[in-house]
Amino acid sequence: MVRAASRSNEIRRVFRVFCLSATRSGVFAFFGQDDGYFPPAQKAMINLQVDDLNGVLDRLRDEGVAVDPKRENCDFGKFGWFTDPEGNRVQLWQPVATD
User: Fold this and answer.
1) Which of 30, 64, 77, 81 has the greatest number of C-beta atoms within 10 Å?
2) Is 28 a member of any domain?
3) Nearest to residue 65, comparing CAs of 36, 86, 93, 50?
4) What is the enclosing helix (H) or strand (E) of 67?
5) Within a domain: residue 94?
6) CA angle (4, 61, 89) in 5-degree steps
7) At 76, which CATH number?
8) Using only C-alpha atoms, what is the Rg of the chain?
9) Where is 82: in which H helix or E strand?
10) Which burial class, exposed, middle or buried, applies to 60 when counting CB atoms under 10 A from its CB (0-12, 13-18, 19+)?
11) pLDDT tens digits for range 34-75
């Protein structure tokens, strides 16, 4: 669960893009206090696994969400980011397709 200062329609639109429910589970990765991978003032960053990175980022942009134009490709998948209405950076991960 994520604590947010507001329950605005902007937050609901972001969640609707991912069809998020309260029953989803995840994996935690820990970063040091000085790690620059995400903003130091942000205590946690959500990483969501998606099937179509560019499609999801396009839908978020269409909803008026701030999408980072930067993309990363590596051996285990593609990554992209957006900023939620509370100002938190959120990472999207499209794993490498396996047969």
Assistant:
1) 81
2) no
3) 86
4) strand 66-74
5) yes
6) 40
7) 3.10.180.10
8) 14
9) strand 77-83
10) buried
11) 777 777 777 777 888 899 999 999 999 999 999 999 999 988
* Tokens describing residue 34: 């000085």
Q: Does residue 93 carry a pLDDT above 80?
A: yes
Report yes or no on 27 lying in a domain. Answer: no
Which residue, 80, 26, 91, is CA-closest to 55? 80
CA distance 42 to 45: 7
- Domain containing 1 equals 1-20+46-99
Neighbour tally for 80: CB within 10 Å: 21
pTM of the model: 0.69
Own/partner pairs, 40-48, CB within 8 angstroms, 24+ separation: 42/88, 42/89, 45/88, 45/89, 45/90, 45/91, 46/2, 46/88, 46/90, 46/91, 47/90, 47/91, 47/92, 47/93, 48/18, 48/90, 48/91, 48/92, 48/93
Looking at the 3D structure of the chain, how many domains does it have?
Answer: 1
